[in-house]
Every structure is written in C-alpha cells, then in structure tokens.
User: Which sequence fits this backbone?
C-alpha cells in the first residue's frame, strides 16, 4: 500500500483517526449543549420562582399594612385606556382610601403557548416574564392544555361572603393567576386568599387534597378560627358512548379549634372495570365490566379516621359530596341473543337526593331468555335510604325492585351488578341492563339533611333532622348536585349554579374525574 510519509501512515489510517476525533468532539459538544440547555432551564425556573415570590410579597405587604376593604373590577379598571391595555383588571381598594391596580397584559387566545414579553401589572410596575414555552409539546397534549398568564375573568379574581356569629358580613377574595411551564411540574402563579377583615392567607393556609388512592388524608387546624371546607365528588365510570354520572359539590364555613384533626377521604372515579371508585363507589360482579362501569366514590370529611367503610367513621362524617353512578351499555347481539337490553348514562351525584340512572335503549326479549327483565336502572340515594335496583318489561310494567345502596357503602347483594351505584351519604342503587344511580350529599346543619344518631348500629341506623355534631355544624352552606342544581332545602330545586373550579378536574356543570377537597383557613 502507498505510504504518505516516512513514518508509514496510510490515507485510511488518517481518515479513521480523523473520524474518531470528530466523534469525540461531537460527543463533547453534545454534552456541552445539553449542560447549557439544563443550565438555561434551571435559570428560567429560578427566575419564575423568584418572580412569583416577589409579586406575591408585594400584594401581601399591601393587604397586611394598608388593610383591604374591597376588590372590584370597576374604578380605574373600567377606563377605556385600561380596557385596551389589560385582558383582566381589578382594583384593590384599601381602608385608607387608596387603590392599586392588579392586571394582566392583553394576550390573545392564539398566544397561550408563549409567555414571552407578557407581564402582570401591579402598583405602576410591570412584572415581565421573559420566558417562552417550548414548541415541542409532549405527545398527546396541546399548547392550550398548559396555562400561561392568559386567564378568564372568573379565574382571575372571585369573591364570596360569609356571616360571623354576630351577623357581620365578611367578604372573602380569591386571586388566582396560574403560570405553568411545560418543562416544569410546578405552578408558578399567584394564589392568594384575602378578606376585608385584615386577614391574608397564601398557599400555606389553603390545603388541597387530591385523590391519592385508597387512603385518607389528615388535616390539623393550625389555629382557632373560621374555616371553609369545599368538596367535589367523583364521577362514575364510562363505557362506549355512555357517560358516568358527574360528581356533586358541597361547601360551608365552620369554626374549629387549634389542633382539631379532620380526616379527608377523596373519592376515586369509577372505571370500566369490576372495581368501584374509592370511598363508596360500587364495584361490579366479577366479569360484568364488559357491560357497564363502576360507581364514582364520594368525597367526605370525618371526625374519625380508619378504613373507609368503618361504620363508626361513616357515622362521624360532617360533610359529603356525592359520587355519580356508572354507565351501562348492555346492548348484545349474537346468534342466541338478538336483542337490546337497557343502556344509558349514570345518574349524577345528588344534593339531598341522588339522580336515577338511565335505561334509554331496549327491546323485547326473545329467544331463550323470555323470563329475563328487559331493562333496569338504579335510583339515587336519599337522606335516609340507599338507592334501589328497579327492573321493567318493555311495556313498562315493573318486574322487581330491591334496595341495593346503603349508608356510605352498598349492601351485600348476590344479584348481577353491571353498573355500580355512586358513593355518598347513602349510595346509589346498582343496575343490570341499565345505568346506576348517584349517591346523596350531606352537610351537617344544612336544611333538608338528615343526621344519623350516633347510638345507631350498623344493623339499625336511626336518623334525626338536626346535626348530631352540634359543634361541627356548618353555616353559609352550598350544595350543588352533579346536574348543576342548587339544593337549599329538601325540595327538588329548579335553580342552577356553576360549581367553583378546583383547578384539577373538569368542573363546568358537575365534576368529571376523581374527587377533590380544599380547606381554607380564614382566620376570623
């Protein structure tokens, strides 16, 4: 072979050596670039965290030092100039008469995937976010799934009122400006709860409880004072085109002593399996998930912890948001079964009473199953009884009926269950050849609710119209069922109201997904 020099190095050897050197250099460059990207990411993350802390402290200091009187969307915010500048704007009115604007720059819906050059305006200062969401969106997600500082007015500043024991009205204000980067798991937004009674709380005073599996979570009251408790029940399972019933919402204000322990049980969503949602969502008979889905669990607060189905624990519940019943798709076509059994959506978690499941499509039974009922459905739980399984022939004549729901958990039954009842104060009835009913909700002290005598036994549950736990009765209560109706008494309501959003599950008219709970210390 031809040599290129006196040292005997060939052309091939030079090329191989050069290639090895380039591979090493390329590898080193890759490591350097990766380190640079990680460093940039860490810097951006730190910048967002610092920004959040700085702006939150500014608002905190003003409320604590000046005393908050009101937050409104009028005043300076209603001027033409500010309407053109800001997407959302609110005046913070302080007790010395001064006002400061908290606002968000105009951001179009199409610009949600970018935070670059966007800002939050407070006290004549622009807090600019110099960061952009990456263009590489995780598989199966969309930019709109991720939050920027584009928010709807309802999520920006909201207010509520409560009345103290002396009749004084206190307004509670929530400021929620979420900022979430695709690359980071944290939410870098502002989340502040304040009142016009000179009290401010931040995330440390708002305790949130998400579904964590089949277990309860403890809450210890940090101080004497007023607390707001909010619960969202879980939805029932879906199957085919049919949907599980949506979960209910309950809330109220209660006075707690420092160190009081509450036990929070967050309901699990029903599924298209034989297993029911945690905390009362009814399971199916083994193998029946090919026809329907299990019930959604209730979300509740108790004075006694332990296993979710322990009777003493169930008796100690002071607030319950009902879960929805499971859906059913028992439409069978085969050589032996050329028929339609009942199918439908699960009944929604109720207020005082849960909703009945649907049995919307069915036909006469033919072939070898003439004695088999054409369609069934489960009714909703009530304040004093669980829901029932009711079956009918195609002409509407009732064939059989039986209570299957119980106090906090379904009864042990041997009949086929193809869709599970929703959890609740009392659980909904299960069904086969049709959808199941939703559970009922409960708030200690709420009009229309029936408390349980604490001397009751599991085999003999006695009820009373007033709270058994007098020191744990709520005031200013709200009960919204999974269909969006507001229960102010035992009478079937006709007025609807949107549920508050919990920021995790889908809440529009009824809760979809797992349950959720939130306890806010108001310090009053």
Assistant:
């Amino acid at each position: 072979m031809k040599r290129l020099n006196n040292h005997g190095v060939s052309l091939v050897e030079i090329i191989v050596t050069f290639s090895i050197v380039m591979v090493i250099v390329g590898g080193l460059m890759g490591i350097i670039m990766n380190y640079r990207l990680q460093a940039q990411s860490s810097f951006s993350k730190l910048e967002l965290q610092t920004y959040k802390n700085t702006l939150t402290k500014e608002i905190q200091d003003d409320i604590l030092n000046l005393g908050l009187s009101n937050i409104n969307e009028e005043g300076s915010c209603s001027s033409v100039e500010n309407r053109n500048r800001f997407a959302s704007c609110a005046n913070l009115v302080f007790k010395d008469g001064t006002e400061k604007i908290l606002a968000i720059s105009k951001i179009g819906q199409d610009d949600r995937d970018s935070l670059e050059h966007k800002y939050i305006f407070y006290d004549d200062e622009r807090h600019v976010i110099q960061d952009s969401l990456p263009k590489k969106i995780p598989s199966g997600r969309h930019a709109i799934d991720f939050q920027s500082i584009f928010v709807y007015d309802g999520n920006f500043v909201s207010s509520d009122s409560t009345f103290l024991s002396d009749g004084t009205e206190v307004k509670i204000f929530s400021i929620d400006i979420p900022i979430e980067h695709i690359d980071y798991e944290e939410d870098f937004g502002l989340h502040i709860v304040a009142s016009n009674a000179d009290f401010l709380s931040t995330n440390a005073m708002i305790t949130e409880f998400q579904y964590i599996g089949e277990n309860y979570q403890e809450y210890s009251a940090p101080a004497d004072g007023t607390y707001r408790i909010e619960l969202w029940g879980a939805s029932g399972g879906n199957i085919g085109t049919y949907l599980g019933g949506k979960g209910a919402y309950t809330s109220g204000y209660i006075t707690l002593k420092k160190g009081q322990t509450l036990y929070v049980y967050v309901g699990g969503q029903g599924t298209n399996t034989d297993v029911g949602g945690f905390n009362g969502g009814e399971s199916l008979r083994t193998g029946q998930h090919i026809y329907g889905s299990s019930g959604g669990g209730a979300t509740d607060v108790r004075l006694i912890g332990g296993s979710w189905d322990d009777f003493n624990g169930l008796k100690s519940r002071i607030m319950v948001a009902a879960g929805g019943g499971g859906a059913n798709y028992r439409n069978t076509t085969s050589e032996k079964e050329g028929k339609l059994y009942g199918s439908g959506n699960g009944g929604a978690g109720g207020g005082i009473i849960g909703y009945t499941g649907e049995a919307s499509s069915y036909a006469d039974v033919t072939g070898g199953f003439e004695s088999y009922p054409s369609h069934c459905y489960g009714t909703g739980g009530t304040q004093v009884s669980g829901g029932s399984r009711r079956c009918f022939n195609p002409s509407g004549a009732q064939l059989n009926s039986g209570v299957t729901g119980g106090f906090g958990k379904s009864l042990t039954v041997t009949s086929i269950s193809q869709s599970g009842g929703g959890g609740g104060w009392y659980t909904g009835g299960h069904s086969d050849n049709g959808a199941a009913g939703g559970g009922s909700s409960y708030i200690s002290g709420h009009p229309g609710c029936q408390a349980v005598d604490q001397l009751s036994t599991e085999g003999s549950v006695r009820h009373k119209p007033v709270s058994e736990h007098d020191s744990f009765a709520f005031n200013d209560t709200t009960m919204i069922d999974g269909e969006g109706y507001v229960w102010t008494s035992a009478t079937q309501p006709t007025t609807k109201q949107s549920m508050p959003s919990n920021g995790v599950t889908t809440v529009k008219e009824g809760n979809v997904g797992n349950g959720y709970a939130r306890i806010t210390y108001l310090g009053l």
Q: What stands out?
A: Residues 365-371 have pLDDT under 50 and may be disordered. The radius of gyration is 29 Å.
